[in-house]
Amino acid sequence: MTGMSTEPVDLTTALDTFDALWSPRVLARVNDHDVRVAKVRGEHVWHRHDNTDEFFLVLSGHLDIALRAPDRVVTLPRGSVFVVPRGAEHKPSSAEGATILMVELTGTLTVGDRHDPLPGHVDVTTGHEL
Amino acid sequence: MTGMSTEPVDLTTALDTFDALWSPRVLARVNDHDVRVAKVRGEHVWHRHDNTDEFFLVLSGHLDIALRAPDRVVTLPRGSVFVVPRGAEHKPSSAEGATILMVELTGTLTVGDRHDPLPGHVDVTTGHEL
User: Fold this and answer.
1) Positive/negative CA dihedral, A82, A19, A130, A10
2) What ranges do the domains of chain B cover?
3) Where is the Cyclic nucleotide-binding domain (chains A, B) (predicted)?
4) What is the pTM of this model?
5) Are A29 and A5 spatial neighbours (Cβ–Cβ below 8 Å)?
6) Mean pLDDT of chain A
7) Mean predicted confidence (pLDDT) in A94-122
C-alpha cells in the first residue's frame, strides 16, 4: 500500500492493471473504509453484509443490483450511485459489463457474511492491493 | 435524506441542482462517512482535519491540492484520486474549475478543525443536503 495515500492515482491506469472480474482492487483507504474498484460482468451471488453499508458508483457500463424484501432490481447506468444498506440481501449483475467504484468498511468480504452457494467465478476477497 | 439510500442518484442530475462553489452536497451516507460532491473554482483555504482522512476524486476539470511539510502541490486531472491524511494541512484550488467527489467522516467541516482566516467565498458547512 506504500504510496497509495501519498501520491495521486489515475482511475484508468488503475483499471488497466487487472482484468479479473468480480475481484476488487483497493484504490485508497479513508479512515477505516476502503475505496475499491472492480470490473464486473455476468452475475455475482446473493449475499449480505451485516456490518457495513456498501456504496456503488458506476464508472462505465451498466450495473444492476437485485434486492429482496421487497424484490426489486435497481438499475445503475454510468455515473449513478447507490448505497446497499447493511443487512440487505443483494446480488449485483451486469449483462454487458461495467467498471465500478465502491466504498465500504476495510475488511469487508466480497461475498458478505451470508451468501448463496458460490459459483467459481466469484472471487472471495477483502480486496486485492493495486 | 429520505430516499437517498433507497434510490439511485445520478451524479450529473445531482450536480445540476446547485451552482455554489466550495459548498459540498451530501450525495450518500455510507456507515459513518459521507460521500459529497462539490463544484470548485479559485482557492479554498489552508486547513486541516484532525480526525478524518479526506478522499478526493476529480469528476471533471482539474484540482490542485497544496500540502505542507514538505511543501508540494498535488495535481489531480479528471479521473484521478488522492487521499489527504488526517492532520495534514492542505489547500485545494482550481484555476479553471472542477467538480469533485469526496469521502470523509460525517460531520466534517469544510474548513477543518484549524484553518487560516476565512475568505468570504468559502462556505463553512458539514455538507448540505441534496
Assistant:
1) negative
2) 24-120
3) 42-82
4) 0.94
5) yes
6) 93
7) 93
